[in-house]
Design a protein that fits this description.
Layout lengths: L3 H30 L3 H27 L21 H26 L3 H30 L4 H11 L19
Helix pairs in contact: 1-2, 1-3, 2-5, 3-4
Length: 177
């Protein structure tokens, strides 16, 4: 059985993951409206990934016979000053999530909840990749802010969309989409 304190915090994290998904949809919609389809596609894909992270956490709690709370989330930011702002917001969000995930690992460890600690280790690895990816995109967006089509070209070159599914990823409730 998962430690009570861990379960409470993981339920909070589910809210953060759903909020991240919503924010990434808002980012994607902004880019879609600006006719920047590769940036839009990138953030639509990120939204699905964040949603799946939340659903992985839901599945873990269900498997651990713990209570699951599906929270409401605050409305995302939808107005942006320029093409750089959504990416900067996303990087800040990924850094915050990294800290939250690390705190969850710490709670599991403090509580002697080894199964929950093991479950969270995949998310630690995932956050390294997420922060690195968003940091790269922010550097490119800042450098090419006045030439957004060059950002699109960079995404076309660097984000091939052929990432293999991670066999070590936890299972999502309802199956991954």
């Amino acid at each position: 059985m998962a430690a009570t304190r861990f379960v409470e915090r993981l339920n909070e994290q589910i809210a953060y993951e759903f909020a991240a998904a919503q924010q990434y949809i808002a980012n994607a919609v902004y880019y879609d409206a600006e006719t920047l389809p590769r940036l839009a596609a990138f953030f639509y894909a990120q939204a699905l990934e964040e949603r799946n992270h939340a659903m992985m956490m839901v599945k873990y709690l269900l498997d651990a016979d713990a209570d699951v709370t599906i929270p409401g989330v605050a409305a995302p930011e939808t107005s942006f000053a320029d093409v750089v702002a959504p990416v900067a917001l996303a990087l800040d969000q990924e850094r915050r999530v990294s800290d939250q995930i690390a705190a969850l690992v710490g709670i599991a460890r403090e509580e002697g909840d080894f199964q929950s600690e093991q479950f969270m280790l995949w998310f630690l690895k995932e956050q390294v990749e997420e922060v690195a990816s968003m940091n790269d995109l922010l550097r490119i967006a800042e450098r090419l802010a006045d030439r957004p089509m060059d950002i699109e070209d960079w995404l076309a070159r660097e984000q091939t969309g052929n990432a293999a599914e991670d066999a070590t990823a936890p299972t999502a409730a309802g199956g991954a989409v």
